[in-house]
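Prompt: May I have another protein with tokenized structure?
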Amino acid sequence: QVQLVESGGGLVQAGGSLRLSCAASGSIFRINTMGWYRQAPGKQRELVASITSGGRTNYADSVKGRFFISRQNAMNTVYLQMDSLKPEDTAVYYCNAEPDYGSGWFGQGTQVTVSS
């Protein structure tokens, strides 16, 4: 099993920035890709960004150029730098870790609220 603990959410005005962090523990040797999902009220959970153990990144079109994902493999930590935040970025953000085989894991989530 892998445990994921997020931190860094909060309330920010439009145009502001936040940095999310996620620390993994447990069977971390199983992790390949780490990333962030988000779920806004009444909407499905969606992928925001991901990064492989080799450093390859993937972003949702809605956040390209504003959000930046990074990872410290030695620290088993993944970060999401969110700049130029918009009210539509308001959601619960979930850390995700995926193994090479089998089902992945999610953290409990951290609320991000962007006021207009």
